Prior knowledge:
seven-stranded mixed sheet, Aspartate aminotransferase, transferase, NHTrfase_class1_PyrdxlP-BS
Amino acid sequence: xxxxxxxxxxxxxxxxxxxxxxLGGGKNQGRNGCxxxxxxxxxxxxxxxxxVDVSRFEGVPMAPxxxxxxxxxxxxxxxxxxxxxxxxxxxxxxxxxxYVLNVVKKAENLMLEKGENKEYLPIEGLAAFNKATAELLxxxxxxxxxxxxxxxxxxxxxxxxxxxxxxxxxxxxxEAKVLISSPTWGNHKNIFNDARVPWSEYRxxxxxTVGLDFEGMIADIEAAPEGSFVLLHGCAHNPTGxxxxxxQWEKIADVIxxxxxxxxxxxxxxGFASGSLDEDAFSVRLFVKRGMEVFVAQSYSKNLGLYAxxxxxxxxxxxxxxxxxxxxxxxxxxxxPMYSNPPIHGARIVANVVGDPTMFGEWKxxxxxxxxxxxxxRQKLYDSLSAKDKSGKDWSFILRQIGMxxxxxxxxxxxxLFLLVHMAHAIQLPIAH
Length: 433
């Protein structure tokens, strides 16, 4: 940014101004961001005074808008009453409003009744939350929990948990590469780029079948350098909605184990995909049951609707208790200069809900309702498309996919036409076929 103040009392002022840019500011020359000035006098009169500020940030370019959050900004700016926000994956009511779970309101009221304070948490977070989140993920009776093999740190939702793990990988596995599905959640690549962790893609989506390219996925994981980290979506793959079958998960585990890769799960939808906490944790528990060391990032943004609370965790299942202790100590060391310690409000909500049998039951019911409603929306979309589309296209993939996201298999031109037709029907305009 540059600012200038200019007072002119002579036609020669423009020439002086030009010279001031060349001559600089005398003893202040060479200082970045300083004020540079030249004053000339003629016959006792001030001819010109010039002051210029040069910002230290002149070399900082404008960043492009985030491709996901940018859609939400465009949505807010749009004045059309028929608009729908298809950007950020957030659950909405039929009235298009954010849904606050009743059990969350009860947990918050309980916190107010207890009069709990806002003291700093330890670096690793709230102990009750860490216990609850590991048990939800792995099962309360899982031997790895009882044997002390799990290092758990509360972190800043799924993104913060992934970023913390990426920093750990960069520091202690500097030669390792991360394999990421193609496509994947838009922020995955940003996270590993920012942590300076190299990554490559493995095949995942098959446009011919609008399903999983399982053979391509297996081939790419097999071809990766031994000891790579393989980023896997625990359930409700974002953005395709396509998950491996239990049998396919077994084969994926076989290959990862044979190649001595490290499985790294991103679990953002446990309980929110199928409506069952246990069913949605199948993939993670399968790998852990095989005795594999595993990274798992968790988020409670979707299943408890705690989007803005930024509550999640990074879990590392290790081969021995002393290994888990060392891993946890280094995760804490990384977290300290990043954000020091995590926020308490959302963590207490989770701990209260999971720790109280009544509220825990109510939460599971609400998750089943949300997941059921999403399935119902899928069914309605399938029924409508099947009835109206006369091309013979098989739309059954909509029902096979799961969660909040769906890949349609439509190309860009088809999507534009699809939106045009449905918008026209919504506002009752004639369509020229």
